[in-house]
């Protein structure tokens, strides 16, 4: 049973470009969370999605950031017109029915904005 | 507004001794607490959790203590091993129905180093 898969693991973008980060949850998991970890800080909640629905996006910056979890395919976190302050590690986590109240995290995608 | 705080950025312990990692929170609505362990270039891995209806939960070498009146929890690792060297994050959530436990508020982390 593969874990939470994230790609790319490392992404370098220049200011103004777009970044797309992908997350495939664990098999059977239909709940996906995205977290961001800035340097020297803990992880911060960004968004919670179920298949085809955004449930809670209270942690998402109001502009340039969007997330989706389509019926088929991975969840995608999209950052438009990236700025240096977007440089961070972005973690995806999933949660499924029948399990404990515990998130399983992916290895993360590290975004560097030049 | 840092609702979950880990005031010790780092902790160094000798192998075989006890490691105690501390965490304080301010939000009285939090009712579920977790500890995650993180190695470099990996995602956080769940270690142990505790519900607010308990004051202690034990799993092998790991024990979490919760003091609700003080809004404080701690993780004890006994005996500590070099492989325990990692960053430890305290996290908390407030139940709001459904699967809201996934919305976690994390502390800044404590780097634990266990020396052989």
Fold and architecture overview:
The complex is a heterodimer of chains A (114) and B (116). The relative contact order of chain A is 0.34. Chain A has strands spanning 5-7, 10-13, 19-24, 31-37, 43-50, 53-56, 65-68, 75-79, 88-95, 104-105, 109-113. Chain A contains no helices and 11 strands. Chain A is mainly beta and 114 residues long. In chain A, the strands form 2 sheets. In chain A, strands 2, 4, 5, 6, 9, 10 and 11 form a 7-stranded mixed β-sheet that branches. Chain A has a 4-stranded antiparallel β-sheet with strand order 1-3-8-7, with no helix packed on it. With 116 residues, chain B is mostly beta strands. Chain B is 0% helix and 52% strand. Chain B has no helices and 11 strands. In chain B, strand 6 and strand 7 form a beta hairpin. Chain A binds chain B through residues 4, 6, 31, 33, 35, 40-45, 48, 56, 91, 93, 95, 100-108, and chain B through 4, 6, 32, 34, 36, 41-46, 49, 89, 91, 93, 99-109.
Tally of helical runs of chain B? 0
Helix content of chain B: under 10%
Report the radius of gyration of chain A as a whole number of Å. 13 Å
User: Total helix count of chain A?
Assistant: 0
Percent strand of chain A equals over 45%
State the order of secondary-structure elements of chain A, H for helix, E for strand: EEEEEEEEEEE
